[in-house]
Write a structure and sequence with these properties.
With 625 residues, this protein is an alpha+beta fold. 43% of the residues lie in helices and 14% in strands. The chain has a 6-stranded mixed β-sheet. The chain has a 6-stranded mixed β-sheet with strand order 8-7-14-9-10-13. Strands 15-16-17 form a 3-stranded antiparallel β-sheet. A hairpin with a 2-residue loop joins strand 16 and strand 17. Helix 18 packs across helix 19, helix 21 runs antiparallel to helix 22 and helix 22 packs across helix 23. The model has no long low-confidence stretch (mean pLDDT 97).
């Protein structure tokens, strides 16, 4: 196996490029630790593949994007399914972009056989392209493919941004695999972290197209791999992976599949809706909404239209998970269809499809924009903002009482679409160029704290912000150096905050191992255990891998500038979880009782104490020495 990491350094201002080489394990193993080094040195945006990209291991072809996030403010890691399989054909491990193109451009990377990578920046009229059908990100992908696709001997991959990358700090990077030279509806996203905004605003690049025919030494010996897995699991690789990805394919226990299906089938009273106001409802009310609006409608539609006819696909690499669940051109995952679904008062698939498609077309991080839209919709419903101020024409239906699951969902989706349009066009008071957190603070100065308090987010440094992952658990609000991913514990059980911080740190290192080796976390059921063994067998560096992962986690954590929860609902997100564990789940632990009493005595003081305890647990576990 190749023992060097090859980095293609590209200056977007001049198209000047060179290949830098780094020995594997001295000290870098992949796109995260090497990306951290390069971002710190050059403030670059980095995209790369893991050491095992192109190998027989399923899930090994995730594209890893790193750099300093414009919305979070710190170093960030974001990933995109399947996109590293084509990247591997460039014969490099990492692309590192510096400089700014003189005009909005497309970065073209091509490698034919043993030749050097051809690098060119091609000007593009971004606004004119975004207005073409089918609009935004999708139009940019199509335009780039039509203009430059014929240069490639095999199907290339196009990464593109939409208008959200220009109008906000949380624009995503979208892509879709090709089939027969044509774009498929299986769009994949590097969403969290705002790297689409970084690509366009800092480097003036609206898209990257790459591909080639370079063939390198990928691990393809299935017999040897099966021996490794047989020693650990008494089963072959394919059998172990098939079992590990059951949830994402089809889980017979729930007669559904994918993150959307299994999560909604099992949430019950943990369902969040109407901008988290569900936290203040009774368990009976939450279960009633889950039963009537989710199980018997939203989930039922999904099962009938997607699961039963097996409308599913892969992200661009061969994989037994077939996790991309579809209905026509609509790809459905839990978190986007939750944040731009029940959280925004939308419980019907047709309405959610309309709202999610508009967000995707614009190129938003769907989770973050779902949190913003839901917050602004509550402000509308409560009269804190007028429809004209957010670009809407009406107020939403934002209560379960008397809610018409089809008509009111369609009504709310229409308001959500209008808010998305207003963000892009900066209509009314909406201006998210410097982020939603700064926008919320500005609104609060003009209209009072009651406008900011319903907004749920984690805060970082002066302007950094992130809407949490859509799980009602304190781990999603933790003061970690990277939030919005799964570098934290998101289980449903109660953990004392100091212990939660330690577990967050442990899981951060496990997730970093997957990301640094370019693996999809849907395969973590075996990958977390087996990857060190595989690296030892191929490179003899198992101990060094674990040492460097710990060091990388520590270096990321050393930049942790998390800020304690600023909005009241962010605090209540944690307090109501604790209260539910006591009153609904019947957990009887002195630590839980003590924390609930502290929150009920002085909410602000308790929140600060809880937050710091989580911070302490993570910090003491992530010290390098």
């Amino acid at each position: 196996m190749d023992t060097q990491l090859r980095v293609l350094m590209v200056d977007a201002a001049t198209s000047y490029h060179r290949i830098d080489r780094y020995p594997v394990g001295k000290p870098f193993f992949g796109p995260v630790d090497l990306g951290l080094h390069l971002a710190g040195k050059h403030r670059s945006l980095n995209m790369g593949a893991g050491l095992l990209a192109g190998s027989i291991f399923p899930g090994s072809n995730r594209l890893i994007v790193t750099g300093f996030s414009p919305c979070w403010g710190g170093f960030y890691v974001s990933t995109m399914g399947g996109a590293a399989l084509v990247f591997d054909n460039l014969g490099v491990n990492l692309l590192s972009i510096v400089g700014r193109a003189p005009t909005p451009s497309v970065l073209s990377l091509n490698r034919q056989g043993g030749e050097q990578v051809e690098v060119e920046t091609v000007p593009v009229d971004v606004r004119q392209v975004w207005q073409q059908e089918p609009g935004g990100v999708y139009a940019m992908m199509r335009h780039v493919l039509e203009k430059l696709g014929e240069r490639y001997a095999t199907d290339p991959r196009v990464l593109a941004v939409g208008p959200a990358a220009e109008a906000t700090d949380f624009g995503a990077i979208g892509s879709a695999p090709l089939r027969g030279g044509q774009l498929t509806p299986v769009d994949t996203w590097c969403g969290r972290g705002g790297f689409g905004s970084k690509l366009l605003q800092e480097h003036n690049l609206a898209a990257v197209i790459y591909g080639g025919t370079f063939v390198d030494e990928d691990f393809r010996d299935r017999k040897v791999a099966d021996e490794w897995f047989a020693q650990k699991y008494q089963k072959k690789l394919a059998a172990v992976d098939f079992e590990a990805t059951t949830k994402y394919r089809f889980d017979p226990r729930f007669q559904t599949g994918g993150t959307l299906g299994v999560n909604y089938a099992t949430l019950g009273g943990r369902l969040m809706f109407f901008n988290y106001r569900s936290m203040y409802a009774t368990e009976e009310q939450r279960l009633q909404v889950h039963d009537q609006f989710i199980v018997n409608h939203y989930l039922k539609q999904f099962n009938e239209e997607t699961i039963q006819p097996k409308q599913q696909a892969m992200c661009g690499e061969p994989c037994a998970a077939v996790c991309k669940k579809l209905r026509d051109e609509y790809k459905k995952d839990y978190e986007p269809y939750q944040a731009l679904g029940p959280l925004a008062g939308v419980f019907d698939q047709r309405a959610a499809e309309r709202l999610n498609r508009r967000a995707d077309m614009y190129g938003f991080d769907a989770i973050s924009v779902g949190g913003v839209v839901s917050w602004l919709m509550e402000c509308l419903a409560e009269g804190r903002l007028s429809p004209e101020e957010v670009g809407a024409k009406d107020r939403p239906a934002f209560s379960a009482e008397g809610f018409d699951v089809v008509a009111d969902s369609a009504h709310n989706a229409g308001i959500g679409v209008a808010i998305l349009d207003a963000i892009i066009q900066r209509r009314g008071v909406v201006d998210l160029r410097e982020g939603a957190r700064k926008f919320a603070r500005r609104l609060a100065r003009d209209k009072g704290r009651e406008v900011l308090d319903p907004f749920v987010y984690t805060a970082f440094a002066r302007k950094g912000w992130m809407v949490p992952n859509q799980y009602w658990t304190p781990g999603a609000m933790s003061p970690m150096a990277i939030m919005g991913k799964y570098y934290m514990y998101y289980g449903n059980d109660f953990l004392p905050p100091r212990e939660l911080g330690r577990l967050n740190a442990d899981l951060m290192k496990k997730e970093l191992t997957l990301d640094n080796l370019g693996f999809c976390r849907f395969h973590r059921g075996w990958a977390e255990e087996m990857l060190p063994t595989i690296i030892e067998s191929l490179y003899g560096l198992k101990d060094r891998l674990q040492e460097e992962i710990a060091a990388t986690a520590s270096r990321i954590a050393s930049r942790n500038a998390s800020v304690c929860w600023e909005s009241e609902r962010s605090i209540d997100y944690v307090y109501t979880f604790l209260k539910r564990k006591q009153t609904v789940d019947g957990v009887q632990r002195p630590e839980l009782d003590s924390w609930i009493k502290q929150f009920e005595t002085n909410k602000q003081e308790a929140a600060l104490a809880f937050w710091y305890e989580v911070h302490k647990g993570a910090a003491e576990s992530l010290r390098e020495f």
